[in-house]
């Protein structure tokens, strides 16, 4: 049951990321469960879980964080594993279409053409991470335990 809650919650949270970015700049405190947190906020939650909720709450938090990171890693964005899987699936589909129409295999995808998109994603993700770290230091998350 907890695994399913963490999995569906992760998909819901990933869908809310674009709407959550402007809230990083909002001066009002954002202590609801839909707040983006960084590693600083996750460490603070882990400390709160151990001191207030016990080791079971801490283990549940660590498990849910691992599930969330694993699902995020499967997004079809190139620097992530899901992006590499998407490229492989694209190559296979393109080869199958070529075989179907009796054309030569087009070969592998030129990863250098995808490099600018990868750099753009890494830059965006890096800036978002820095913003979330600053937000978690300046406006720490409340203890939910």
Number of helices: 5
Counting DSSP E segments of at least 2 residues, the number of strands comes to 0
Shape: elongated
Poorly predicted parts: none
Nearest-angstrom radius of gyration? 20 Å
Strand portion, in percent?
Answer: under 5%
Helix content: 55-70%
Largest pleated sheet: none
Write the element-wise H/E pattern from the N-terminal end onward.
HHHHH
- Name the assembly state: single chain
From the N-terminal CA to the C-terminal CA, the straight-line distance is 19 Å
Give the structural class: mainly alpha
Overall mean pLDDT stands at: 86
Q: How does this model look, in words?
A:
The protein is mostly helical. The protein is 70% helix and 0% strand. It contains five helices and no strands. The longest helix is centred in the C-terminal third of the chain and has 28 residues, at 111-138. The relative contact order is 0.15.
Topology:
Elements lengths: L1 H19 L18 H15 L1 H19 L7 H20 L10 H28 L7
Helix pairs in contact: 1-3, 2-3
Looking at this protein, list some descriptive labels.
145 residues, mainly alpha, 70% helix
Brief synopsis:
The protein is mostly helical and 145 residues long.
């Amino acid at each position: 049951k907890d695994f399913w809650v963490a999995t569906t919650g992760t998909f819901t949270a990933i869908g809310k990321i674009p709407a959550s970015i402007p809230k990083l700049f909002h001066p009002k405190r954002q202590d609801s469960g839909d707040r983006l947190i960084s590693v600083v906020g996750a460490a603070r939650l882990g400390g709160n879980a151990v001191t207030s909720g016990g080791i079971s709450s801490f283990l549940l938090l660590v498990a849910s964080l691992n599930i969330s990171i694993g699902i995020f890693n499967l997004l079809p964005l190139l620097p992530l594993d899901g992006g590499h899987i998407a490229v492989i699936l694209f190559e296979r589909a393109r080869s199958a279409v070529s075989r179907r129409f009796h054309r030569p295999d087009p070969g592998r995808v030129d990863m250098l053409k995808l490099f600018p998109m990868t750099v753009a994603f890494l830059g965006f993700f890096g800036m978002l991470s820095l913003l979330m770290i600053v937000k978690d230091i300046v406006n720490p998350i409340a203890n939910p335990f």
